[in-house]
Amino acid sequence: MALLSVQHLKKYYATQRAVDDISFDIAPGSIFGLLGPNGAGKSTLLRMITGIFYADSGNILFNGEPFDSGRHIGEIGYMPEERGLYKKMKIGEQAVYLAQLRGLSKSEAEFRSKQWFKRLDMTTWWNKKVEDLSKGMSQKLQFVTTVIHNPKLLILDEPFSGLDPVNANVLKDEIFRLAQEGTTIIFSTHRMEQVEEICDQIILVNQGKKILDGSVKQVKQDFKENLFSLTLSNPDAPLPADIQVLKQEQNKLMFHLNENVPANQVLLHYINQGNNILAFEEILPSLNDIFIRLVQGTPAAREFVA
Predict the structure, then answer these.
(1) Which terminus of the chain has a lower count of CB atoms within 10 Å, N or C?
(2) Tell me, what CATH number does 231's domain have?
(3) Are residues 19 and 154 in the same domain?
(4) Structure pTM?
(5) Is 298 domain-assigned?
(6) Which ranges carry the ABC transporter domain (predicted)?
(7) What does the pLDDT average to over 132-156?
(8) Residue 133 pLDDT > 70
(9) What is the CATH classification number for the domain harbouring 121?
């Protein structure tokens, strides 16, 4: 059973179809990428999933039950891209306060907060005020306040914004750990390389419509173009008939292979010549390439590329 099932969800405004008949399922313990250019409908989708907005039509099922914000919101953690912290408040007090709003006792809230502060190397900042924090440290605090009540569904909107590479890796490790422990995660970002590294499944929306969904591996396979890279000891040897060399850099060839021709046939051709094969790989398109291909030409796509 899917932890979250979105069925034919629609949300229309006077001049815009923000979400136009979108459906998808998210398996328990998976990391699900929600992708799309600005204005595609991602934020509206997230706000309906968290009960901030009501859908005009369609259904949301949470763990097999019709979503009820009063009953299910305590099982969701939502970390929006915009900061939602009290600048004049000490960060330790703030973490404890927000945890109590999630239903934890004061003692449990303090215990969990200190655990998370230690895990994310924030202990020395306990008595600092939010206004004294860097953008990256504020992001780590916001992450702590989002996960402190152990939600079943964790929604992260641009979670690595403002983080240096070291702290981004720390947060990434925690995301993987939470997923391994059974937390279901929706990950929304513009950074396609992060999606490829982190997500199991993705959905791509554009202008309110779903235009792609599936596993990251399958999506990349579906959009492959029979491109390969081959590094040889003698790259100037005669070419097999079924390849078209697109680029050559020293002893490395990038080529297109005709459909229905097995790659092993190319390798056998060079082996029979006595040519040493130093490296060989299929070149799959990046999610960024696929994204641009699918939404190219729309105003949102041009903004994304810029």
Answers:
(1) C
(2) 3.30.70
(3) yes
(4) 0.85
(5) no
(6) 4-232
(7) 92
(8) yes
(9) 3.40.50.300
Q: What percent of the chain has pLDDT over 70?
A: 97
Q: Are residues 182 and 248 in the same domain?
A: no
- Look up residue 147 and give its two tokens: 């996960």
Same domain, 121 and 152: yes
Residue 205 lies in a domain: yes
What pLDDT is recorded for position 134? Answer: 85
Q: Directed axis angle between helix 135-147 and helix 165-180, to 10°?
A: 10
- The structural domain count of the chain equals 2
Tokens linked to 88: 């004049």
**pLDDT tens by residue, 80-123:** 887 778 888 999 999 999 999 999 999 999 999 999 999 999 99
Q: What is the pLDDT of residues 77-91, one digit of tens each?
A: 999 887 778 888 999
Q: How far apart are CA 143 and CA 141, in angstroms?
A: 5
Q: Are residues 46 and 190 in the same domain?
A: yes
CA nearest neighbour of 298 among 36, 44, 45:
36
- Whether residue 306 has pLDDT greater than 70: no
Quick one: 234 and 211 in the same domain? no
Token pair 């999610």 in the structure block, residue: 287
Sheet holding 17-26, edge to edge: 17-26, 4-12, 57-62, 65-66
3-class secondary-structure state, position 117: helix
Show which of 173, 199, 220 is a domain's final residue. Answer: 220
CA distances from 141 to 77, 79, 114, 247, 283 (A): 14, 11, 12, 48, 39
Burial 90-107 (b: 16+ CB within 10 A, else e): bbbebbbbbbbebebeee
Domain that holds residue 112: 4-220
Quick one: pLDDT at residue 302? 41
User: 241 with 256: CB under 8 angstroms?
Assistant: no
Of 215, 190, 186, nearest in space to 301 by CA: 190
Predicted local confidence at residue 260, as pLDDT: 83
Q: What is the mean pLDDT of the chain?
A: 89
Same domain for 46 and 139, yes or no, is yes
